[in-house]
Amino acid sequence: MGDRNLSDFFQSYIKKQSIFINKKVLQDQHTPSEILHRKEQLGQIASVLAPCLRGEKPSNLFIYGKTGTGKTLAMKYAQGELESVAKDNNLPLQIIYTNCKMKKIAATEYRLIAELGRALGVDIPPTGLPTDEVYNIFFNRVVQAKALILVILDEIDVLVAKNSDEVLYNLTRMNADLQGASLSIIGISNDLRFTELLDPRVRSSLSEEELVFPPYNAVQLQDILRKRSTEAFKTNAIGPGVIEKCAAYAAREHGDARRALELLRVAGEIADRAESEQVGIEHLDLAEDKIEHDRMLEVVQTHPKQHQVVLLSMLRSPTHQGVVQTGTVYDTYRELCAPVGLRPLTQRRVSDIIGEFDMLGIINAKVHSFGRYGRTRNISVQIPSSLLPTVNAILQDALHLPRI
DNA sequence: AGTCCACAGGAAGGGCAGGCGA
DNA sequence: TCGCCTGCCCTTCCTGTGGACT
After folding, report:
1. Which tens digits make up the pLDDT trace of A345-391?
2. pTM, rounded to two decimals
3. Which of A56, A96, A249, A354 could disulfide-pair with A51, CB 3.0 to 4.6 Å?
4. Which long-range contacts (C-beta less than 8 Å, at least 24 apart) are formed by A379-388?
5. Averaged over A79-92, what is the pLDDT?
6. Which nucleotide is closest, CA of A351 to its C1'?
7. With a 7 Å cutoff on the CB, does A372 touch strand C?
8. Which nucleotide shows the minimum CA-to-C1' distance to residue A350?
């Protein structure tokens, strides 16, 4: 494309009609004005947290539900409402939302407390102080603020996994000497089993109140998609059956609304690029492929070298009716290690790596017994054939191998 | 009934990097 | 800055096993 053409392209791009009005509505960060099919949960959140509007310390709350079930959304919504009521009535309420998945925030105890302190307006240096000191600064600030403080710890399982439950223990215990101020914790997790890792004392105080967010079913997903799509797309931009199929896709995968919305957005982008005036089923199917493809490429690209060599070995091993065995893969792997310049790992380890790829759905590995001829895993690669050349190229480049 | 293949996959521990308090 | 601790990757050693073959 020459300069002329490129500028033409940009010009026409601007003029081109898009079927989107507001794509943001379909994106993750968007908070809708109304939350569908979560009335009950919102009601429970409200009843647990309402005491803080009377100046009483609300119970700690633990919220559990799989990804895309609206936990964060509902909590943020409740936060907004509480804050505005508190403000209207001049109540000393402070709500701090933190997502523990953010590396900078919850990688260590220190950083989390420092972050909480900063949210209350004290300047805590990013490093340098003893952890005790940070706790003290935070503690004093809370006392001084004489406020009711709600700390929302989203993805709290990550926090506990990275540190220990000690942070939570310290935070829950803090109330004893707060002299009028108070601190409540709202934990959000998509892994229920994580509470089993907690010290019993922490567990019982964190889960004073518990709330479960069930997955959305297909009908509920349809409602959500319809609502959002009227804001996101022009009228009549969604073809017949698209919402239904989109909801069905997502419902099949444990009712994840986030995925459903992503699917619809990507389908819209594809339709847009095809200069279609309507999102049709065909765009939806393409979108599903695209999302799946992107995910696979992401996995292939980001894995460490040893894993990449193992994957390439599986692609290059001679197959028997589309299936390879662990031993064959390991032989190929050993041969590949030399040109790549890696020390070969043991078969035991490679076996585990194969298992990891299986978990990710990149391959399918079933244990199969050949009786007299041993027991092994039957491995078949699940990468769609349209993607194979790309995957091969990525791996060969990453490993500095000549392209085949 | 017993053998034996070709691994699966558990247990324990080595070695290393990165983060911690002192 | 140093030793210490922890988590992660990996190895070693091991026991387990489904079913064709004898």
Report:
1. 999 999 999 999 999 989 999 999 999 999 999 999 999 998 999 99
2. 0.74
3. A56
4. A379/A314, A379/A323, A379/A324, A379/A325, A379/A326, A379/A329, A379/A354, A380/A319, A380/A322, A380/A323, A380/A324, A381/A314, A381/A315, A383/A296, A383/A315, A384/A289, A384/A292, A384/A293, A387/A293, A387/A296, A387/A297, A388/A315
5. 89
6. B8
7. yes
8. C10
Which residues 161-220 on A are within 7 A of strand B at the CB atom? none
User: What's the Å distance between residue A230 CA and nucleotide C14 C1'?
Assistant: 62
**Any idea which fold A303-398 has?**
Arc Repressor Mutant, subunit A (1.10.10)
On strand B, nucleotides with any atom < 7 Å from a protein CB are: 3-11, 19-22
Q: How far is the CA of A349 from the C1' of C9 (A)?
A: 9
**Statement: residue A2 has pLDDT above 60:** no
Mean pLDDT over A147-156 rounds to: 86
Å between CA of A307 and C1' of B21: 36
Is residue A188 pLDDT above 70, yes or no? yes
- Please indicate whether the domains covering A39-213 and A303-398 agree at the CATH topology level: no
**Cα dihedral value A46, A49, A50, A54, nearest 10:** -170
Cβ of residue A368 lies below 7 Å from strand C? no
Q: Report residue A127's pLDDT band, with 50, 70 and 90 as the boundaries.
A: low
Residues of chain A (371-390) having a beta carbon less than 7 angstroms from strand B: 371-377
When comparing pLDDT for A36 and A124, which is higher?
A: A36
Chain C footprint positions (protein CB, under 7 Å):
7, 9-14, 16-21
| Å between CA of A310 and C1' of B5 | 24
Superfamily classification of domain A39-213? P-loop containing nucleotide triphosphate hydrolases (3.40.50.300)
Give residue limits of the domains in chain A: 39-213, 219-299, 303-398
Question: What does the pLDDT average to over A296-313?
Answer: 93
